């Protein structure tokens, strides 16, 4: 498969008990599945520049940096992440629940879905106006974030936090 560079199918490397990736992933790959392995690092594997979806759930990953600029979906739940260096501005869906994240920096302006439940987050940054779904339950959040002029949000799940002030919620 790797030699033919077939871009019509996702590259599925899930459930292979991989501890590292020692080969180059072709730049033509758009959807990469690395879930349920034993990976601790993604740096150095050379993620494809045209990658749209990265699924790396259920590994041992401690940090993720150098994400491709065009990445639209990142699913990295059930790892050992403590945060992100920088998220691509193209990101639309972020699922990073069940990690050790303490802080999320600025979220991409076009983000539509955020699931950061079951972490150690004490506060969230300002919510992009494009956000439709926010799941942040089971953290240490004391105050809900500023929703700005968000008119898209249709679901907020924030139970089991330390919230004492809900602020101004969107209509």
Summarize the structure.
The protein is mainly beta and 171 residues long.
Task: Tell me the span between the first and last alpha carbons.
Answer: 49 Å
| Average residue-wise pLDDT | 90
How much strand content do the residues show? 5-15%
Along the chain, the helix and strand elements come as EEEEEEEE
Helix content: under 10%
Gross morphology = globular
Radius of gyration: 17 Å
Strand order of the largest sheet: 1-2-3-4-5-6-7-8
Sequence stretches where pLDDT stays below 50 over 5 or more residues: none
What does this structure look like?
The chain has about 170 residues and is mainly β. Helix content is about 0%, strand content about 15%. The protein has no helices and eight strands. It has an eight-stranded parallel β-sheet with strand order 1-2-3-4-5-6-7-8, with no helix packed on it. It is globular. It starts with 10 loop residues before the first strand and ends in a 14-residue tail after the last strand. The model has no long low-confidence stretch (mean pLDDT about 90).
Give the tags.
171 residues, mainly beta, 8-stranded parallel β-sheet, globular
Protein topology:
Blueprint: E1 11-12, E2 31-33, E3 53-55, E4 73-75, E5 93-95, E6 113-115, E7 133-135, E8 155-157
Parallel strand pairs: 1-2, 2-3, 3-4, 4-5, 5-6, 6-7, 7-8
């Amino acid at each position: 498969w790797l030699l033919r560079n077939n871009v019509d199918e996702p590259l599925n490397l899930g459930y292979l008990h991989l501890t590292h990736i020692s080969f180059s992933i072709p730049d033509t790959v758009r959807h990469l599945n690395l879930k349920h392995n034993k990976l601790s690092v993604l740096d150095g594997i050379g993620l494809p520049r045209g990658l749209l979806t990265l699924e790396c759930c259920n590994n041992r990953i401690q940090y993720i940096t150098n994400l491709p600029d065009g990445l639209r979906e990142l699913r990295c739940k059930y790892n050992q992440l403590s945060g992100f260096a920088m998220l691509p501005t193209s990101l639309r869906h972020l699922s990073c629940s069940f990690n050790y994240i303490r802080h999320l920096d600025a979220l991409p302006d076009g983000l539509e879905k955020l699931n950061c439940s079951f972490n150690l987050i004490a506060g969230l940054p300002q919510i992009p106006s494009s956000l439709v779904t926010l799941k942040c339950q089971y953290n240490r959040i004391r105050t809900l974030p500023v929703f700005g002029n968000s008119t898209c949000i249709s679901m907020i799940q924030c139970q089991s936090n330390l919230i004492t002030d809900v602020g101004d919620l969107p209509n």
